Structures are given as structure tokens and as C-alpha cells.
Amino acid sequence: MPEFSPKVSASLARDVYALTKENSIEKALKVLNAQYGGNLVFAEDVMLKAKTGGPWMIKCRTAFGFTLIGKGPLQGHAVFLFRGTQYLADWLTNLNISVSRSYSGQPVHDGFNLAFKSMEPQLKEFMGTLTKNKITQIHCVGHSLGGALATICADWLRSAYKIKPYLYTFGSPRVGLMGFADYCTSTVGAERIFRAFHKTDIVPCIPTWPFIHTPNSGMDYYLPSPGIVPGAAYHSMDKYVESVSGKNWQTLGAIDSEKKTESGVVQWLKSSSPVGLTITALEWLNQALVYVLKKCLNGAAWVISGVMGSSFTLMDQLAYVLKKGIDISEGVSSLVVHLIRKIMEILGMKKVLKAADMTREFIRNIFMRLQAKANEYAKAALSDAMVKGRAI
Amino acid sequence: MTLGDVGRVCLFSAISGTITLDGKPVANARLVRTGDRDGPKVDETVTDANGHFAFPAMYERTLTKFLPQEFVASQQIIVHHKDQQYEMWSAVKRQPEENVESRGKLLVVKCELNAEQNLIMVNGSPIHSLCSWDVEPDPKTDWEKEGFFDN
Fold it and tell me: Does the B3-146 domain belong in CATH 3.40.50.300?
């Protein structure tokens, strides 16, 4: 498959920051030429537009992007390159995240979706020039919020244009709910999605559940980084470039990510060994939650709002689904009980519980507390200026 | 790091040097420097009789150093000399520390206003300038040898 090497995709995700800050397209092109040997350039119409004072980058209040076309060995390839701005932290720690539908109709983070939609007209324009530029392959690349936008873009290309793009993200936040992750992974193809993340990068940990990562099957690219608590240092694109340099995707994919099998997840849920609020426990909890939700939904798709009315928040729905799981069967019920017990333990609430005690309201409250805790945790890591040099 | 340094990021390192036009020192030229991360900061200086100038480091206070956010600041120095304007320096600084433009050394430059603007990459930061200084640019990738695709 003609997927970009980790070095190329990481360099692009890093260089987009400098490229968008250049004061002319000529300078940006010089940088592209210096970095990629003249093999990645702006399309002629973009250059032309820039000459008449038109936009040469795709810009909205919260994000920037570029479309690039390949030359020489990259003939036939196009790159959609995204970057975010400083609003990321605000978005991610907002407790009132709302969800809206992506182009394919799946539930995604409303803020990411809006940012993408405001860029869509310019991307559409570029799509109209594919034939003229003889483009057959598209690569979507981004870091951080740019990774979220690249992911939504990949879903858009697949749904609106029936194109299977390649998708590369570095330290991307979680973009959508299970429905989106499922749909995007299966239609774009897990083998075309390269999601790289550092173990202690805070951004891939948020937004918290029920948001999950794309792809939700196949490979992801776990990069070890020091520490046991997530923070901001290993979110930097310089660090990502460093971590992937000289390696191919296969080597990166082989790094032990402590992959959790279904039986491992069940074992963790049922085990009585103590857990605390560590990144390892959160990773397990995340996997367990996805596993239990799947069991509760019993193959049905995750539905948002609709019949439940707009006063239902995501947490309400989560509680609703889990409560339904309790009523499905003894087996699923015990999984839900184990899950809630684990969460209570992580939250430092010690209480023995039976399935009968788990009203929807109760489950909802537990999740609200968990989310508040996780957000508090993320916020501390994100914005506490004094955090450096202090143990958490 | 002391408490007073918390949240301080360097938009433009201290920069000094000499300016020439066709090899001759340019006296009394006005230099306007801009650093822009989240809104422009501007300062100015004038060259002395020997064409020498010096700017102190330009800092800004922000909490973003501790946020999971990329540091991206544009830099520019325009030289105003005899009704002419020369873009002496136009760069994007990608690390918040001082002196990254010269890999930790003091940034001392020699600039020729009639030179062609030249681009070098230092730590992923593009610097277009009319200047030369003591720095090793990033190594160039041999794409023909290395290829763009995964192997």
C-alpha cells in the first residue's frame, strides 16, 4: 500500500504549524521545497489565488488547513493537512460537550464537526480539481485538533466521494462515539488508519467517555513516553517526530501497547486487586467500558438523542444503555455491576453493590463523578501553570 | 527555573550584528522587529556608525507553555534605509526557549541588504533571511534514497 512513512506523515503534521505562520505563499512553498525536495507543492489554482490576494490556506476561527499535491514519486497523491489553534484545551475540558452528526450521519464532537464544516467549502473546491490534477490517492494528516479534523475529513471523503483516504494522526483527541468509530474504521479501513499517540500525552485521553478513538479495531501506534500520569510535554509534535524517526509502521505497531484482549478485560473487571486513578487504570477502564457497552447494546447501534429528547445528555444515555444491560441477562448484568464497582473504587468510593441497587439515576451519577474527576485531572495537567516540577 | 519565569516564552531571541549594503556598513538604518505568537509585539532600534545593532530578547508571558499546544511565533525584522525597505529576517520560531535560532549560542548575525533572501531550517523552524550566523542547518533528507512511502 502506498501509505506515507511515519517520518513523512509526522514531518507534515509538524511543518503545517510553520507553514501556516509564513507571511506569504512563496515563503511557504520554499519551505515545502526545502523539506520535501519539490515533491509536494500547492496546486496551481491555489498559487494563482494567492497572487490575487486570495486565500492560500483553509482557515476558520479554530483551525487551519492546506491541500497539497504531489510531484515526481508523489504524482497522483494529494495531502489534506490540518492544524488546530489554542482553543483545544477549552473544548476538551468542557463538561457540556455536545454531539452532532458527521457527514456519514455518525455522532461526533460538535466542536470538531463545526470546525470541519466551516472548512468544507474550500475542500469541496479542491475536490473539483482532482481529475485535472490526476489525483488518485488522498492522505489526511494532522496533530492534536488537526488530527481530529483529519479524521472527520477522512469520513467525509469516504461518505461524500467514495474515496478511501489514508489517515495519519498524532496525539489526536477522541473524535466521536462508538457509532462513528465503528463506521469510520470499517468504511475507510483499519489498515489505512495510522493513529500514533504517546503513552503520557494528555490529549488522546480526552474528551472522556463515551468518546472513543478511531480506529477502534486493527492497529494503533502506541509510543512509550516516560511517566505514569498524562501531561502536556509529550503532546508536542517535536516529540512525536523524535519517537517515530527511523522506524516504519510495522516496527511502531509492534511496540508492546499492553493490548487488552476481551478475556483480559473481563479478568480485570472481576479482579479484586486495588485500582487507583492512574493512566493504566484509566486505559483498562476505557477498554472495559467499551466492552460492557457493546454487551449491553447487544449488537444494536449506539443511538443519540432522537426518541430520548434533547434533555438527555450523553451521560443520561450512557446510564440508560447500562441500565438496559442490567435487565438483559444475568451475565451482562454482572459485567455492569463489576464495571460500576471498578469506577467507584477508582473514584475512592468504597461500597459493595448489587445489581438491584443500580438505578439509572445512580449509574448516571457515578458517570458524572467519573467524568468530573477525569476532567479535573485533565485540567490540572493542562492548565495548572505550577504543575511543572511538582508530583501529582 | 524561578517563579518569575513561569509562563515566559521567547518570541525572538536577543539578536545583534552588523548590516552592510554592497559590503559597506549601513549607519542610521531603522530596524523594526515584530514577534507574533498571539498578536504582534513590536520594537525598534537604529544601527550605529559601524552598521551595528542589538535587540534584547523579546519575551511574552502566557500559560500556553504548560498546555498541550504547539509553540508557533512568527518573526520579522524590516530594515528601513534611504526610503528603501528590506526584509532582513522572516522566520517561524517553533520552540519557546531563547537562542534556538542558533542552537543555544548567542545569535550574532551579518546581514547584506543586497543579498538574495536565503532559507535555512533550524530544528524545524524556517528562517528566511539576508543574514549569516554560526549555526548548522537541519540535515536535508535524501528523498530519492529514502522514499516517501512506508517500507
Answer: no
